[in-house]
Amino acid sequence: MWTTVCEAIATQIGEDRIVKPDEAEGRLISVTGEAMPAVPILRPRDTEQLAKALEICSAHKTPVIPMGGSTGLVGGLRHTGKELYLSLELMNRIESIDPVNRVATVQAGVVLQNLQQAAEDAGLSFPMDLGSRGSATVGGMISTNAGGEKAFRFGMMREQVLGMEVVTSSGQILDLSNAMIKNNSGYDLKHLFIGAEGTLGIVTRAQLRLRPQLPNVNTAFALVPDFASALEVRHRVEAALGNDLTAFEVMWPEVYEMTTGHRTGRLPLPIASGVYLLFESEAGTARDPEAFETAMAALYEDGLVEDMAIAASEADRRDMWSIRNDIDAIIRNLSPFLAFDVSLPVSKMELFVQDLETALTTRWPKTRFARFGHMGDNNLHAVVSIGQDTSHYKNDISSIVYDRVTMMNGCISAEHGIGIDKLPWFELGKTSSAIALMNTIRTALDPNNILNPGKTIGAVG
Prior knowledge:
FAD binding, about 450 residues, flavoprotein, catalytic activity, FAD-binding oxidoreductase, FAD-bd_PCMH
């Protein structure tokens, strides 16, 4: 099927730039364990090679699926029978760290953790952080407009991108480079490609905003009796710490039990029936180091928290976050499962959780959950398992989830995109005119529909 187009690409950029189907088969393309079929992978070394490969694919009307760190949850890398895979794993250079202008210029295949370390080595920080920092790539994070643990303060990936280089479906290289925070000279075209899941163009390089290192980091784990108390604690902590508050996470009790049940030694907090909160502040040296502890003490004195642990060291801090980010423990406990990433007004988050639990357990009494998220920025993750039939009832369960999200004025995707799994519900909450405009843009930029076809807004053209 791919012989002719692969031979043409090999002639232009080298045979060693193509991974053969039998060598590619079995690569993981999702954190849920979904694997790649026997399909060739294009692996260009630079923008020019990528442009030439896409030019050839466009001429042959051969679609491609762009790959990042393969940490998605919505089937964005799922093969539908005709596509080649396109990996930028060899385009992984950190080209420059500019400490004066606080800008990093990196290729799209750079892994988040490597970027964080390079920024730290220069006395700066890149404020995006994800549990999958060891595998998530810059290109993948841009394509899904990733959020993560610090989005509450620093915003999502969109807020970190100053400029970029993009290759269109025809092989045209667009130079949208920019190293300034303010640039109001016409349409800011980079925003078309951020969050587009590779359907409008392939990001190959980015200029990213760096921040100063903030040495005064404070982390606390708290147990509160219910979600109403969690809302009050968020209000009080925000009022006390202001812009220093970087993260505010929420976990329902089953998550804390799953992620600590296999641990030995003392836990930060006991396993109980309340709601768990993990929050963190970052400040410069001018901030009184006791301000955080003073704010925490006030929560105790006013009876808002039942128990609390404050990190006394970096090791304590890492241990607390490892509990929040132990997705493997959730996978072990709930497989087979469906994972939902939605956003909701925080005022309706508890109602959503209760209503969803009632709806699912009424139909499937043995339903189990793991509910957690970035409460500070409206993001809730709900992992659901009804048992061995979970995948069989995928559409039914998804409809129950997304119908309730829409009724509560939420969004069906917070930070993982649409992919292929959420496509049947894509139109929820969107006007027909908005969808028509999206299709017009996609058709204009990819008239042959070769970039991740069937994903995000469906097939067009």
